[in-house]
Amino acid sequence: MSVGVGVSVSYPSISLSSRNLSVPSSSLYVGRKVLRPSSDIYLNLRCRKSRTKPLLAVIGSSRVPELDSSSEPLQVFDGTTRLYISYGCPFAQRAWIARNYKGLQDKIELVPIDLKNRPAWYKEKVYKANKVPALEHNNRVIGESLDLIKYIDANFDGPSLTPDGVEKQAFADELLSYTATFSKVVRSTLFSGADIAAADVGFDYMEQALSKFKEGPFFLGQFSFVDVAYVPFIERFQLIFKDVMNVDITSGRPNLALWIQEMNKIEAYTETRHDPQELVEKYKKLVQAK
Ligand SMILES: N[C@@H](CCC(=O)N[C@@H](CS)C(=O)NCC(=O)O)C(=O)O
Predict the structure, then answer these.
(1) What does 237-279 look like in DSSP terms, one character per residue?
(2) Which of 69, 96, 132 to mutate to test the pocket of ligand 1 (most atoms within 8 A of CB)?
(3) Nearest CA to ligand 1 atom 10
């Protein structure tokens, strides 16, 4: 179902026009309430020439605000299913993508947390580990992103993220167990002074893995929780390698290039993408801190 939303924006640089702009379907909020009856929302907005930034700011700021130490505690275990995330966290992004892909925006409420200024009640009442992601469902709280993407797939309606057949399932297990090694080898180049060869081991593994099932550009041919598990990390690594080292991680890796291209067509993922500049800045700050 497509929904037309009339938006009147008084910001001086934006005026109504006939040019349609498609906005991700889960991204308009008033306070913590989402304005998203179910599908695409079109805003008829136009930025006056050369002033596009305020429009991006409007879209960005339409994400539900993060809760912080000043936020009132939620009524935990009141029957609401909630996914606690942080917008900048790649682990949380996995669970967020799974929720979006399965069309669960109305069934699983997104609760973003400001990790730098966390509400004390999050650790006390919600998740003792004090990390994101965490899912509050059926009077319990489940953490760990790789478990969560499987849990969401198995316990909610919507398109399946689980691969078909024994061979694909076995390869899915192998790929999921490689996620930690992948991060480790790439991060050793980014943070620990290892040369590019260390990261290349990880990217070459991706390239090889993507060649196994030929019926589609995804790890298992079909889109699955394996793609969901890797994409937040590849998103970050691609940006940082390009910006900081001028290295294109897709160069000489056509399967990886195609996979990124196809992932960028999946709205369940693109809705969750982080501001590229912020990601690069965050990385630079981390390196300086080390
Ligand atoms: N193994 C966990 C890692 C989750 C994680 O480390 N999340 C970070 C944010 S990206 C966090 O909550 N950090 C808070 C902390 O460690 O205090 C998973 O896969 O879910």
Answers:
(1) HHHHHHHHH---TTTT-HHHHHHHHHHTT-HHHHTTPPPHHHH
(2) 132
(3) 89
Q: Is the CB–ligand 1 distance for residue 236 below 6 Å?
A: no
Mean model confidence pLDDT for the chain = 84
Percent of the chain predicted with pLDDT > 90: 75
Compute the distance between CA of residue 255 and CA of residue 219 in angstroms, rounded to an integer: 10
| pLDDT tens by residue, 113-162 | 999 999 999 999 999 999 999 999 999 999 999 999 999 999 999 999 99
Model-level pTM? 0.83
Fold designation for 166-289 = Glutathione S-transferase Yfyf (Class Pi); Chain A, domain 2 (1.20.1050)
H or E segment to which residue 95 belongs = helix 90-101
Q: Give the residue whose CA is nearest to atom 18 of ligand 1.
A: 144
